[in-house]
Amino acid sequence: MSPSATQNGESAPAQTHPNPVYLSTEPSEDFDWKVSLKGKVIAITGANRGIGLGLATVCLANDAKEVVSLDLFEPGEEFAALQKANPGRLSYLNCDVTNEESVIKVVDQIVAQAGRIDGMIANAGMTKHQPALNFDRPQLEQLFNLNVFGAYFCAKAAANKFIELGIKGSVVFTASMTSYRPNRAAPSAPYGGTKAAVRNMAHTLAMEWSKHGIRVNSISPGFVRTQMTYYVEKSPDWNLKMQYYGGMPRLADPKELGGAYVYLLSDSASYTTGIDIPIAGIVGAW
């Protein structure tokens, strides 16, 4: 029997379903169009050092109300110095992003202590540069657990909290230029695979969560000067490579990435979702 037919053969009225509730991302008429994070609480994974710490610095410089670092390791001197320079605005919560329960717990803690959460930068990650034939399964699992599953758990926990609180939140993933093309200077097929997964995930989550007013984007950095990449500039053929490949012949300071993250986290990006922004001054070297 057709679901729209009655037992006596007469047509029954078609069932109607209420339209899903959409949380509008449209700015109000009196919106201040300055790109700013004023009043926003931002969580950044892996912000005790490296790229994450640089992003925290730029978010604080752009008036974020509070920045919370979610990290597995204790913060060091650089974090302490930034914390001292921004009293009451930078904190740290111990978190294992590869454990979904740990992520949910710290997101709840952020809301308990700050009253809200407006943005999640899923930045924590790792790399390992070696020939593809040398990777074993435990090494692959370590990369994918942190770079892909960890990023997904953070995005999901933040999205659930945004929906619960009725906040038009923003998720920004740290992808990589290796999600587009191989890193010829220091190849790692599995790392590139994890970052390609993250970049694609951003597109799909943006589509799924737009009805909730949640925006999801990613940033793809090139070479950035961190504890994981400092050796690159020390390579004896670095200058020769730069002459051959072109582009800006240096590594980026992590803070040079921050402007793009601030934009994507801000209300000024209210119509920006599902994109990736490459930031790679030496893109020719990839």
UniProtKB/TrEMBL annotation:
Keywords: NADP, Oxidoreductase. SUPFAM superfamilies: NAD(P)-binding Rossmann-fold domains (SSF51735). Residues 1-25 are annotated as: Disordered. Belongs to the short-chain dehydrogenases/reductases (SDR) family. It holds the Pfam family adh_short_C2. The lineage of its organism: Eukaryota, Fungi, Dikarya, Ascomycota, Pezizomycotina. This is NAD(P)-binding protein. Residues 1-18 have a biased composition (Polar residues). It comes from the Eukaryota. One of its GO terms (molecular function) is oxidoreductase activity, acting on the CH-OH group of donors, NAD or NADP as acceptor.
